Each structure stands twice: as structure tokens, then as C-alpha cells.
Amino acid sequence: xxxxxxxxxxxxxxxxxxxxxxxxxxxxxxxxxxxxxxxxxxxxxxxxxxxxxxxxxxxxxxxxxxxxxxxxxxxxxxxxxxxxxxxxxxxxxxxxxxxxxxxxxxxxxxxxxxxxxxxxxxxxxxxxxxxxxxxxxxxxxxxxxxxxxxxxxxxxxxxxxxxxxxxxxxxxxxxxxxxxxxxxxxxxxxxxxxxxxxxxxxxxxxxxxxxxxxxxxxxxxxxxxxxxxxxxxxxxxxxxxxxxxxxxxxxxxxxxxxxxxxxxxxxxxxxxxxxxxxxxxxxxxxxxxxxxxxxxxxxxxxxxxxxxxxxxxxxxxxxxxxxxxxxxxxxxxxxxxxxxxxxxxxxxxxxxxxxxxxxx
Length: 360
Ligand code: FES
Ligand SMILES: [Fe+2]
Description:
Blueprint: E1 12-14, E2 17-22, E3 31-36, E4 39-45, E5 51-54, E6 69-71, E7 74-76, E8 83-85, E9 90-92, E10 130-131, E11 133-136, E12 139-143, E13 164-168, E14 172-174, H1 178-182, H2 188-194, H3 196-202, E15 207-211, E16 216-221, H4 229-239, E17 244-250, E18 254-261, E19 264-274, E20 280-289, H5 297-315, H6 319-327, H7 341-352, E21 355-357
Antiparallel strand pairs: 1-21, 2-12, 3-4, 4-5, 5-10, 6-7, 7-8, 8-9, 11-12, 13-20, 14-20, 15-16, 16-17, 17-18, 18-19, 19-20
Residues 184, 190, 194-195, 318, 322 line the site of fe (ii) ion.
């Protein structure tokens, strides 16, 4: 670990899936520009309902494509009419030319992008940068690395997003780096101190860590429940011997948490995105399984709402204290930071992720 690594670095963020907008905020044929820590992305929804993400700047002369026209197979710039496919490929000029003229230096033969008549060669056509965009759990997500081509988005173990209902909470802001907020969920020393309302009943947390892939890591609580008095006995009868609490991080940008009763786990996604100044915009998305109970489906819907409210009530204690601490946090590297092994594994994982510089 060093001071140039990703963790808590106010000028760097990990590349990953970051939330952009709620799905409901982008209607068919709508265009909206978003900024994720200086990475500008123009999002638009096609007639078929697909959401596309491209760089807003036209590679011809820099017009903003937000004022261009959406067509069935691409977007056309408003300045000279150049058209780009949803994938970013060049499709033609305003006059239909497939090979736009370039002003390359005819005197130089080295790396010349055009033929002698000034037309661009086939392999050096302009291109619009495109981003992987998906819609999951009621939100539109962008992968900040434009070379990332996998549409697959993380999911909870045991069920797919299509079989779930996701309800985003209200966005929050924190005056510190996203990885400091993200790591709070598995910082045992912090959890066992600030979240005592929870741990007093359930016992202190201790994590078993499992690396799932380069971009994913899971932390599972293995500490036994505290069984004292009647309350303790009731709780351990409900929760089992160990409080079910598991956090899986993906791309160091989201945390998928499972908690509560092992026979009815509650699910929540903690999604934190960086701003250009290194602060954090956070969103909690409560997730529950869809149940099709025929004529009793309305009962299932009420149950889902109760589950989400319950998940919120379990996660809420200590939230106010977290906010006050995070807003005034001035993290600096010290020999005492990351003394607990599971948290230091989290920091190592964050530092291994590909990253990008935040632009002011
Ligand atoms: S600036 Fe976009 S077509 Fe010219
Ligand atoms: Fe906390």
C-alpha cells in the first residue's frame, strides 16, 4: 500500500459500475448528460427502450451531441450532420459521405490517416467513444472504463435481478472518498464501536473473507450470536447461531449486502460514486425477491414492502453517526490504519482495481 493507491485517494477512483440516473428519469427519446467524477457521458433512450451511453463531444469539431438528433440506428450531430451508430461507429457525414475529408498533412507520408485526395482511409474513420450501460434494480448504471465490454452486472447469490424488485432510497452526499464510505460495512473495529445497538444484541462481527474474482470479494460474518437473557435466546432462535451478514464488493464501487434472518434474508446494494472533488454521492437500493402468489400476490407485495422497511431499520442505527464522521474525515496514512486483517484485505482489494484520475 502507498499513498498513490486507490483507497481514500482524493484524486483517484476505481473503474467500475456507477449509478447514473433512476430509470424513470430517462423516458424514450430523452437525452441526458451525466458526469461521473469528470467522465462525461451522454445517455439516451432509443425507441426500442435501450439506453445508450456515449461521449457527448462530437469527434468532428466538438459540438455537443446532446443537441443532435436521435435516429433509429444512431445519433446525428447538429453541427454538420455526422452520424454515429449506438456503438460509436461512424456512419456517414451530413451529405452521406462514408469517408469524411480530413486536413492531414499531404507532405508527410508517415502515419498519414488519409489518401492523397484527403479522404480518410477505411481503417481510420472517426469514432465516438461508447460506454457499457445497463439498467438494473430501477437504476441506469455506467461502467466508467470505456474499454469494458461486458454487459454483465453483479447480482445477489441465488436469484437474478429479473426476479427481484429494487427500490432506490434518497441519494446522500459525504465529504470523503467513496472507498472510505464503502469500507465502513466491513471495518470490524468501527462496526463494533459505532453500531453497538446492533452488535449488543447480535454479538461483535468477525469476517471470513473470500476472493471471488479480480473484481469481487465477499466478507461473511462468522462470529457467534451473543445469547444472554431472554432477548438473546429469542434472537438466536430467529437468527440462528451466527448473525447472517454478508457483504460482497464488486469493482470497489458497489457493496451487495445480505442480512437478517437466514430463512428470509434482506438485501441492499450500497452504491457510492465519486465526484470530481473526491467526495461521494451515495445511494442505498433495497432489493427483495418477486413472488408470484397468484390471487395472493398483493400479500406478497405487502410482505416485500415490510421486508424493505425492516432492512432499513436494521441498517439505520449508527447511520447518523456515520454521516457526521464521514463528513469530517481527514484520512491520512498511518502505521496504525488497517490494523484489523479483514479490513486491510478490503484495502488491498480496492488498490488492485483498475482506476482513473478524477478531473476537476
Ligand atoms: S461537429 Fe459534429 S458534425 Fe461537425
Ligand atoms: Fe458505519
